[in-house]
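2024-03-11 09:14:02 DEBUG pipeline.ingest accepted 1 chain
2024-03-11 09:14:02 DEBUG pipeline.ingest length=65
2024-03-11 09:14:03 DEBUG pipeline.predict start
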Amino acid sequence: MSRVCDVTGKKPSTGNKRSHSCRATKRRFLPNLFNKKIKDPETGLIYQIKVSAKGLKTLKKKGIL
């Protein structure tokens, strides 16, 4: 299962987890993804997409949701 937003293209990034003693170990920052169903107004088909929280705000602003 890929963790990529279909609207914004956000994907996991990497960084360091820091302990109290400032030791660094690798970690992943995952995008905040949701599964949403969107209906195409022209064809009437329903598509299921993975969209991030920022992508949801964009779709609501443009009137797609």
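2024-03-11 09:14:41 DEBUG pipeline.report The first strand starts at residue 13 and ends at 18.
2024-03-11 09:14:41 DEBUG pipeline.predict end
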